Amino acid sequence: MIVQYDGKNYSGWQRQEKAVTIQQVLEEKLQILLRHEVNCTASGRTDAGVSAYFQPVHFETEKELDPAKFIYSLNGLLPEDIKVLSLVKTELHARFSAKRKTYLYKMYLSNVSLPLYSNALQVSPDVDIKLMQKFCKLICGEHDFIGFRASGGVNESTIRTIYSARLVRDGLCLNFYITGNGFLYKMVRNIVGTMLEIGKHKLNYAEVKSALFNGYKSKHTAKPEHLYLLNVEYQ
Hints:
Order of helices and strands: EHEEHEEEHEEEHHE
Oligomer: single chain
Strand content: 25-35%
Mean pLDDT: 95
Shape: globular
Radius of gyration: 19 Å
Structural class: alpha+beta
Helix content: 10-25%
CATH topology of the largest domain: Alpha-Beta Plaits
CATH superfamily of the largest domain: Pseudouridine synthase I, catalytic domain, C-terminal subdomain
CATH class of the largest domain: Alpha Beta
Distance between the termini: 16 Å
């Protein structure tokens, strides 16, 4: 099923003992309808505060379901900040069958905090957008992104392929899109944080470029509440 959620009130996707998570809420509501234990698997774990426009999630059941009726009933049980958009029967694994993931980080350019842009990060209009776009091109391709993995990450391999990274300005909006075959723990937020420091000229682009895949360690992590899982592609 495809799930959309606003993550600001949750401690991320994965179940935790002393916190409310997206996975926990989904499993509890599914169990009410299916009347058996349910384990949900998402395409990937989102951090606390991170939202998703399009999060594929799979679960197993032997019951025959009418998708439209089931979605209607499930959404009636779910809170307003978590909703199921579609449901299909498939052999695809939500995580291991995924080929590409796209994240969006929302920003806006203003010296004044704007109420109607509260879902985006406020950035000074003086930021060097061209230099930030140059950084976007730099990170594309297959690289070792260990320098952008936050402590606590447990991935065995830190090699990832970035198919595209784009910084797009539309009026006051400044949106960063990144597509890859997978992402390390807090990797996207660390990329955005580094990019912003370069744009503010607080980090030297040439120095970052020379060290990027040879000992560079990001010390700048962008806030989670402006990050969105935008799309996941399957073969």
